[in-house]
Automatic annotation (TrEMBL):
Keyword Iron: yes
PANTHER family: IRON-SULFUR PROTEIN NUBPL
Cross-referenced Pfam families: FeS_assembly_P, ParA
Purpose of the protein: Binds and transfers iron-sulfur (Fe-S) clusters to target apoproteins. Can hydrolyze ATP.
Region (Disordered): 83-103
Segments passing through the bilayer: none
Keyword Hydrolase: yes
Name of protein: Iron-sulfur cluster carrier protein
Domain MIP18 family-like: 5-76
Quaternary context: Homodimer.
Binding site residues for ATP: G116, K117, G118, G119, V120, G121, K122, S123
GO molecular function: ATP binding
Length: 355
């Protein structure tokens, strides 16, 4: 039995806001609520000064939701609604100015990789596209901003904490020709992947402006799934060239992708196109091709929205095992048809001046 969004909201309405006296839903601080199967995710948008007083409410909301039948996982992230505080271990430095989107120094283009829902392969596409662009000779950065589960360090086979010799700027890591920084690298490996402090927005700004990206032709930003504060902060703080939406052919994923597209349009971020992932299954034994999740849905949706379908990526065991092993398929099986789909995507973006 899966839980409904209304049932989740009912539970949250029973949790008091320790500051305003109302419940947390009426207080308007529950944001970006997504319910997918047994996974409930939302953001508590709060004044950073109230973080400690809000913690019991966060814990209560989490515990009550966990107790609901049909709920397996609950992720609650507290974010600052106004000022952007610093993550704890950096002393500040080149603080970004609060007004308007800015250019990240040395970075020619910023392209967001987004999806309407989780698990459609957004991070896999971002990692392989980054490696494929590097193979085309582009100077590529990858910023993993997926707060719910930063996966790029594992996919690109980097570990360890990035250094900050001067306490002001952060040195990114590098592998497979890609310069990488991940929110996940700011937390300890054994820490929960959920950001429990109102530090998220500040952390994203630091990732953009305090990481020594060097000269880049393109910085790919792997966003969290859905529409939410990270997407908004990115568009507000940085000059984003555009967004690429990854979707599977399933209708439900398409519907969610539509919501993501609407949000980017509202923020004035151009949609560069869509990518269909898991388009066709290629059997790793016999090479037989099968459209497990249907076919053509993303192409039709892209046409309806008037944006190009940039690539159709097959569903193939190699793509998963390569990512799990820390060397994306473009790096580990460069000549395979599954790598070719990413290489062609990279060449297309370069040819169109988008990368
Ligand atoms: N084309 C593909 N073929 C085979 N496996 C794939 C493919 N794309 C993604 N996967 C696998 O599907 C799983 C989910 O992919 P991934 O983590 O990239 O999704 P995501 O959209 O970034 O999810 P989330 O945002 O929830 O982290 C991973 O195990 C990944 O290896």
């Amino acid at each position: 039995m899966s839980i409904t969004r209304d049932a989740v909201l009912d539970v949250l309405k029973s949790v008091a806001d320790p500051v305003g006296g109302k419940d947390i839903v009426s207080a308007g601080i529950v944001r970006a609520l997504t319910v997918e199967g047994g996974t409930v995710r939302f953001v508590l948008e709060i004044d950073p000064a109230r973080a400690q007083r809000m913690e019991p409410a966060r814990a209560e909301a989490e515990a009550r939701l966990r107790a609901l039948p049909g709920v397996d996982t609950v992720s609650v992230v507290m974010t600052a609604h106004s000022a952007a505080p610093q993550p704890p271990d950096l002393k500040g430095g080149a603080r970004p100015k609060p007004q308007g989107p800015e250019k990240v120094p040395g970075v020619e283009r910023i392209v967001a990789i987004a999806s309407g829902k989780g698990g459609v392969g957004k991070s896999t596409v971002a990692a392989n596209l980054a490696v494929a662009l590097a193979a085309e000779g582009r100077r590529v950065g990858l910023l993993d901003a997926d707060v719910y589960g930063p996966s790029q360090p594992r996919m690109l086979g980097v570990s360890g904490r990035p250094a900050s010799p001067d306490g002001k700027t952060i040195l990114p890591l590098r592998n497979h020709g890609v310069t990488l920084m991940s929110l996940g690298l700011l937390t300890q490996e054994d820490e929960a992947v959920v950001w429990r402090g109102p530090m998220l927005m500040g952390a994203l700004q630091q990732m953009l402006f305090q990481v020594q990206w060097g000269a880049l032709d393109i910085l790919l930003v792997d966003l969290p799934p859905g529409t939410g504060d990270v997407q908004m902060t990115l568009a507000q703080k940085a000059e984003v060239t555009g967004a690429i939406i990854v979707s599977t052919p399933q209708d439900i994923a398409l519907l969610d992708a539509r919501k993501g597209i609407d949000m980017f349009r509202k923020m004035g971020t151009p949609i560069l196109g869509m990518i269909e992932n898991m388009a066709v299954h290629i059997c790793s034994n016999c090479g037989h091709e099968e459209h497990i999740f249907g076919h053509g849905g993303v192409r039709a949706e892209a046409a309806r929205l008037g944006v190009p379908l940039l690539a159709e990526i097959p569903l193939h065991l190699d793509i998963r095992t390569a990512s799990d092993g820390g060397a994306p398929v473009v790096a580990s099986k460069a000549a395979s048809p599954q790598a070719r789909a990413f290489r062609e995507l990279a060449r297309r973006l370069v040819a169109e001046g988008l990368a």
